[in-house]
Amino acid sequence: MKQVCIIGAGSSGITAAKAMKEQGISFDCFEKGSDIGGVWRFNNDNGLSSAYRSLHINTNRVVMAYSDFPMPDEYPMFPHHSHIITYFENYVDHFKLRDNITFNTTVVDVVQNPDNTYKVTLDNRQSFDYQYVIVANGHHWNPRFPNPAFKGQFTGEILHSHYYKEAEQVQNKDVLVVGIGNSAVDIACEAARLHTGKVVISTRSSAYITPNWIWSMPFDNLANPLTAKLPLWLQRTLLNVTLWLARGRQEDYGVPKPNRPVLSEHPTLSQDLLNLTGRGLIKFKPNIKEIRGKTVVFEDDTEQDFDTIIYATGYKVTFPFLKHYPAFDVEESNDIRLYKKVIHPDYKNLFFLALIQPLGAIMPLAEIQAKWIAKIIKGESKIPSKDMMLKSIEEDKQKMMKRYKQTPRHTLQVDFFTYKESIEKEMK
Ligand SMILES: NC(=O)C1=CN([C@@H]2O[C@H](COP(=O)(O)OP(=O)(O)OC[C@H]3O[C@@H](n4cnc5c(N)ncnc54)[C@H](OP(=O)(O)O)[C@@H]3O)[C@@H](O)[C@H]2O)C=CC1
Question: Any idea of its EC number (predicted)?
Fold first, then answer.
């Protein structure tokens, strides 16, 4: 019996493969599509990528790289998805991980055996037992639509941002984008630059629009382990001042003031939104009240006609292969209770990778989680008792509830440095 099964060969699955290989742990990795890269492979034939042709990552190339494999200096500071996929391919080839990955193979079922090992069943009906399973199937692929749906029926075209790939999809159309996360803003800006139809963003909370650049450097360079330790009120004050110095008040460009304090939402990064809004190419509306045919009525009782509504309303956390376990049926809430976001207290040999949404880059955190998992498997790191795990999960939950609005959007939120330090502590 091999020790480990890794489900998925995206950015976290491949770093898990490397961590296992480095520690001499035997493993298989199964990937639904025909190649590695997950969400970062544009038009991935696994059908799960939400990347669009124009997508550039919004964390800089230095902070997003794996610890021992820097991104090439000739890459732009905010690389395009084509750069990122090449980087992942080079990583897999450099560390010789490809032979352990079985492509075009979907894991359809994972069942715990009485001895705490797992039976993994593939879509070709083969089953194998493993001592451990690492779930790395990603959490940005199953579209979430508003629930309950807005009142009424839209007779134009409805799209979720997951299916937005090309600017042609919004050309010559009056477009309403729902939401103001990073998907919404990228799509609205792309539509606005075409100058072929009106572009409106409908948002119920708005967001603090953070530029990619500040004072000739990437904005995310400002975050560091020291600022992460400051009290939240001070972090908020510093960020408010910095945002003001960087771009003044966003309301002056036409982007509404958010109805919550800064740092209580996942950041929306854009160098372009304020400028395009200031030029009148993107307009803002509050939440949708009702839809009548092609007419959308907003909560301020204004109404407008649209050809297309794009719901950029986020994603569901879904594990299709764990359907027998109610603990992992979390689609509605995205609320999965895991110790350090990795281990369920009742399923200790099952690990979840990159099931986090960091303020910062995800790849280095997936890498360190994978190293921790390897240490647990090798017996070099001990996991606490069930009671201690439950206590820690509850404490983390309470902290998060204090800071973020209770929506499915923020259940996986972590601070990059605080979280990294907590996993490093576990490893010791
Ligand atoms: N360039 C890059 O690197 C990109 C990165 N990403 C990342 O992908 C992830 C997903 O981002 P994204 O797709 O934007 O999704 P998000 O979950 O981040 O944002 C969803 C948006 O939809 C709104 N929303 C959700 N439900 C409703 C509802 N029922 N009614 C009205 N509004 C609603 C939310 O508002 P509210 O806050 O009020 O709930 C929020 O503005 C994020 O981690 C993001 O950073 C995405 C695109 C580009």
Answer: 1.6.3.1
